[in-house]
Amino acid sequence: MNSSRQKYLKAFNRLKQGVTKYGPAPHKPVLLLSLIELIEKGLVTNNQFEVNADLVATFKENWLLLVPTMHQPDFTQPFYYLQSEKIEGQAYWKLQPNLGMQINAHIKSVTRLSETCAFGYFEPQLFLLLSDSNSRASATAMLLDTYFPHSKARFIAAKKHGEGYLHDQEDFVLNESEAKYRSIIINTEEDVFVRNGLFKKLVPKIYNNQCSFTGMQWSSTFGHSFVDACHIVPFSQTHNDKVTNGIALCPNLHRAFDRGLVSISADYTILVSDHLIEKENHTYTLKGLVGGKILLPNKRIHFPDAEAVAWHREHIFRG
């Protein structure tokens, strides 16, 4: 273990960095620190690092804590170019494209990258090494000492107290004080990508992973959830990814809601369109939901926004 650890630490200490007018590009060490952090948090246990809100937000958070220069925090750049780093002639980071797709060049759009790339992964021996807490600690300390000695103390303090970009974005999506977080709401593509991913994760969570119309709670031992985060006013209309513009619905009701066949009254009563055609004596008829109250989150600040619900009734619902 020690000889393998030293081999990889040596490689991490000699990353190839682009030369810019602001100094060596810090992208690769920030990405490595972010990948290690996901393992540390238990968010990645299978050596498959998906391009999702957790990874992109962790990269952005670490960048803001560590990089004082004018370099641009482009996550997609190191995610692709880390493949050029090798040990004994072999790359220790690789990308797995989705079925029928190829990744032969740097994909600059994080959304497009997430659609094209199934996941990135470490060489198996390296992932096994980073699964060990002592090795993770050594790798993290070495990366901080080598590339960010002047930012190290701030980074460690922020992580200890749970402060930073990811925390602020989560609080914004959860409808915390707008004034407090106004400065972090910057609509770069990566910011929008992160908030959209947090919306999809946090809306089911505040409804206890239950469909707000039926109370159904579906998941699997593989970690899949079958409850969707549904926008009340479409994202394309307002770019609003706060949980107050969302409700948790099972997939069939999500489709019905988006198509105006169900809606919600001002007092959170379920409405069903007269245009709905269904087998009315079926156990799971939607018309059987009429007049029932939707399940609501525990905190009032997470309740569906009254104006958003009214907009849906006026513009989408086909009463």
In this structure, how is the largest beta sheet organized? 2 strands, antiparallel
The total beta strand count reads: 10
β-sheet strand percentage: 5-15%
The number of helical segments is 14
Q: N-to-C terminal Cα separation, in Å?
A: 66 Å
**Which strand order do you get reading across the main beta sheet?**
1-2
Give the CA-based shape.
elongated
Question: Would you kindly provide a written description of the structure presented here, covering whatever features stand out?
Answer:
This protein is mainly α. The chain folds into 2 domains: 2-163, no CATH class; 210-315, no CATH class. It contains 14 helices and 10 strands. The protein has helices at residues 2-12, 27-40, 53-66, 76-81, 110-116, 124-130, 133-147, 152-161, 165-173, 178-181, 189-206, 235-238, 251-258, 306-315; strands spanning 19-20, 23-24, 86-87, 90-91, 93-97, 117-122, 228-231, 246-249, 262-264, 270-272. The chain has a two-stranded antiparallel ribbon. A hairpin with a 5-residue loop joins strand 9 (262-264) and strand 10 (270-272). The longest helix has 18 residues, at 189-206. The relative contact order is 0.10.
Features:
319 residues, mainly alpha, 2 domains, two-stranded antiparallel sheet, 10 strands, 10% strand
Question: What's a concise summary of this model?
Answer:
The protein is mostly helical.
SSE blueprint:
Layout: H1 2-12, E1 19-20, E2 23-24, H2 27-40, H3 53-66, H4 76-81, E3 86-87, E4 90-91, E5 93-97, H5 110-116, E6 117-122, H6 124-130, H7 133-147, H8 152-161, H9 165-173, H10 178-181, H11 189-206, E7 228-231, H12 235-238, E8 246-249, H13 251-258, E9 262-264, E10 270-272, H14 306-315
Antiparallel strand pairs: 1-2, 3-4, 5-6, 7-8, 9-10
Helix pairs in contact: 1-7, 2-3, 2-7, 3-11
